[in-house]
Design a protein that fits this description.
66 residues; mainly beta; 4-stranded antiparallel β-sheet; 6 strands; 48% strand
Length: 66
């Protein structure tokens, strides 16, 4: 896992899971107990935002697309 300085944005969900966006355009999904994490590489550019959806999903905005 990267240090805190490598993350530009974060988002908490209702189930207490956490999403962190790193400065290399990766997204880390972490469960509440820090037992499980997934890493997704989404875009080559900067990921400028993330928002929770009403049905439990997530919207990620990048410089190139949404």
């Amino acid at each position: 896992m990267l240090s805190a300085a490598n993350f530009s944005r974060g988002l908490n969900f209702v189930d207490s899971s956490l999403t962190l966006i790193s400065d290399d355009s990766s997204i880390y999904l972490i469960d509440p107990g820090m037992r499980f994490k997934r890493l997704y590489k989404l875009d080559l550019g900067y990921l400028s935002g993330n928002h929770a959806g009403h049905a439990g999903g997530m919207l990620i905005a990048a410089n190139q697309a949404i």
